Amino acid sequence: MRYLVFIYVLLIICTSCNDRNSLLSVEEMNDDINYYFSLLRTIHPDLYQEYDSVFFDDLELKIKKNCSIPLSFSEFEIQLFKMHKFLDSHTGLHELNIPSSIDKYHFPKVLFMSDSIILLNHDTLISIDGIPASLLALEVDSMVSTMYLPEIANNLKNRYMNILLGSKPSSFSAYGCSLLGKYGVYDSVIDVDTASLIHPLLMPYDSLFIGDSIAVFQYNSSMLLTGDQRNKFQLFLDSFFRKLNASQINELLIDVSTNKGGSDLANELVFSYLSRDSCMIVMKRVAKAEGIKKIMKSEFYNKRFDSKLELIKGNGFLMDTIYVSPQKNKFFEGDVCIIMGNNTFSAAATFCYMAKVCNMAVLIGDISGQYFPFCGSCIWDILPNSKIKIQIPIIKDYYANINCFENGFLEPDIRYPLTPKLDVENYKQIVIEMRRNKENE
């Protein structure tokens, strides 16, 4: 049945893939699938956390069956993407790119109720341009990891559904839909939506000063992987915190509400300006020997982890301790608040956790988007024939202070509703909440 669903969807809705439509042979795709699954089994630290080895054996066979005819690059990419439901959020292909034509004119946002039901304005979609909505829901459901929060998962499913639907030529275009409403089945013409599906790129870090007493450090990305990137970040931090201390700033907001993660090394640079005293973080790190060998050959590998990684490689795990030490005469002595939310992932969520455990800051906002414990320290690889880029984590970290989490997600100290884009007025209101919390301590 899944094979028929896949072929049906490809034949009808993958017209958006014409830019990369040179065909891959069945043999080439099988080679790539073998390589991918072999790498997962060999280096992933906890591949079977949700599904056992038999399930993955069956999954590999199903994917090969779905690739039993020559497919374009994009069609094969989508087929591999349909594994993501069964993987953690750090494993799999890189994000599917949304063509600009689809971003301009696309289907309005819907609510995915299950792997077969899609709601549009409270009514159930039966079909879109003749395509059964239940088939779309099934395809898209398989493309999103179950470890995401419902709202984040729904946003991703909307993106992927529009990639499958393809592009419309103009803002005057529309979709022919069939829906089930309160009074039965009816047909409707749905105009395209022109609100962008793509979040604007932000500077990885920036600063903002509000009045004489409030500063904002917009820590939008921890993706500072090279030595040169971290050196520039260090210079920014030196300048920023020097200005803070010279200006007699009393309150510092660190905004990681849109930070999707990156490098823990970038986080450690920030911590050195926040900590008055040295702090110790304890965790258990689990990995496979082949994975450790792979990451030690990575272009982003940092040699200061040599001894730790060798211990993990030998034992399969390590009880690790991270020490955070202050920058002499540079650390900030005022009140610190970290703004976090559903779009705070990976290293950014770890940043919030460590700041909380070390009493460096108060966390405000919503629960993190990252599920704990999670696998990280990822390596990237390329499938031999399609050249599709894949990401696989090497190490899984288990943190000692489990009381910080609710159902696997990091909880803020203060709940505060976040808007998609925080502005000066939002920041001022957050400072009011921060002050109120301090008075009530």
Q: From the helix content, strand content and strand pairing, which structural class follows?
A: alpha+beta
Number of strands: 23
User: Please, how many helices?
Assistant: 13
Distance between the termini: 59 Å
Low-confidence spans: pLDDT under 50, at least 5 residues? Answer: 1-8, 10-19
C-alpha-based Rg, rounded:
24 Å
- How much of the sequence lies in strands comes to 15-25%
Described by strand count, sense and barrel closure, the largest sheet is: 6 strands, antiparallel
Tell me, briefly, the overall form.
globular
Mean pLDDT level: 88
What does this structure look like?
The termini are far apart. A hairpin with a 5-residue loop joins β4 and β5 (118-120). Helices cover 37% and strands 23% of the residues. The protein is of the alpha+beta class.
SSE topology sketch:
Layout: H1 2-13, E1 23-24, H2 26-43, H3 53-66, E2 71-72, H4 73-81, E3 92-93, H5 100-104, E4 111-112, E5 118-120, E6 123-128, E7 131-132, H6 133-141, H7 150-165, E8 174-181, E9 184-191, E10 205-210, E11 214-219, H8 227-246, E12 251-255, H9 264-274, E13 279-287, H10 289-296, H11 306-315, E14 317-324, E15 335-340, H12 346-357, E16 362-365, E17 374-376, E18 379-382, E19 389-392, E20 395-399, E21 405-406, E22 409-410, E23 414-415, H13 424-440
Give keywords:
single chain; 441 residues; alpha+beta; six-stranded mixed beta sheet
Provide a short characterization of the protein structure.
The protein is an alpha+beta fold and 441 residues long.
